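Try it yourself: sequence plus adenosine-5'-triphosphate, in.
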Amino acid sequence: MKRKINIQLISIVVISIVLTMVLILFVYYGIFKKQVFNELTTVAGILAVAENEDLSGKAADKNSVTYRMIENLSEKDLRVTVIDANGTVCFDNGASDSEIQADRDRPEMQEAYEQGEGFAVRESATIAQSSFYYAVRLDDGGVLRVSKEAQSLLNVFISSLPTLLAVGASLIILCMIVASFLTKSLVRPIEDMAQNLDNTEQVAAYSELAPIAETIRRQHEDIMKGARMRQDFTANVSHELKTPLTVISGYSELMENGMATPEDVTRFSHEIHKNATRLLTLINDILRLSELDTGNSGPDFEKINLYESARVCVSMLSLNAEKHDVSLSIEGNPCYVYAGKQMIEELLYNLTDNAIRYNEPGGTVVVEVKEEGDKVVLTVKDTGIGIPKEHCNRIFERFYRVDKSRSKQTGGTGLGLAIVKHVVEQIGATISLQSEVGQGTEIQVEFPMRSE
Ligand code: ATP
Ligand code: MG
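Structure, out:
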């Protein structure tokens, strides 16, 4: 990452330096050209006045002041050409005859004939030089042209190249130092943070880092909480397994030592059987929970008639309800939800089983399935013992039981509602609870409707 930032910063710098230098070069050359033309215009102006006035004689006349002026200018590498109205060259202090004849048709000459004055820049014999021309029309219809050799753009570029390179190189070095300093100061807080994840109080080094720091901190806390929960769970599981195993081991030891009368043997065997069954239920529930935890509960969601499933569950538990002297009934009409079949069965079974188990003799349990708006709602309502307010939030925790003795006595493990909560989450449903001690409990599960 550091390398990437460095490379990107440096390439931006190199590109901008090159662009700036090219721009400066063109601007500078433009100014330089303007100056050369200024000089040519001034000289041509003076000479044209002299030619027009005709007082000191024409340039072609070797004794004239004009001629002497031009001679003086020749030393400064200025070339002067005069062409009459017919295009015949009547004076030139520079070039060969053939060149002179060709000069008549040059663009700056044409421009001067037509518009009064003309400018031109042409390459010289050597590429290092350019020829600058300025031509002006005389009163008699002829043209006077002054020209000068000066540095070409290429030459300006070549001669300024060492300076440009030196400046560019030092700028690049400076940028590399700044870039490495900047990337370090960007990356270091992140590295620091990664090393001090435990120290959740640590504040982010700069504000842009705060959301990331916050997310990481929260995730870290979640992980720690998860680890603590797993620890608690293991401790609880061990504890829950220990009780029935102690009972089994105690009774079987008594029988082994021949310390039990034949009536005792029947009673002990019954206790052993009961506790072994409890162990099995417990282990099944734990396995199911860890299955739901890892998300391996089977991805095979399907369209399920919730009413039909509830009817099967009610008829399965009707004997159980009879035993508890509780009347169990179902209401509603066929509604479809999208879920795993086993999940729905577990959900229905656990809720209905609780409603029967924590009921009073002569009480009722009503299971209802109906559509409400765009939801399918399952309600399990009982007239049982109810749940005190302070326990309402906790009964979905693993192994949590309001009345330990009553739950154990009825063979409860305290895992039923934990499984229900998991199932509800995986289906994408929501669960709510209303309860009044001594009046009864109503649990509602809202399923998102199947859109087919
Ligand atoms: P399991 O269902 O695993 O056999 P359990 O019934 O004790 O054991 P949960 O179903 O998780 O465990 O219920 C947790 C506790 O919530 C119960 O022990 C009970 O105290 C309370 N509870 C649950 N449903 C009801 C209800 N309908 N009326 C009163 N109390 C209830
Ligand atoms: Mg239960």
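One thing you can check immediately is this: The chain has a mean pLDDT of 86.
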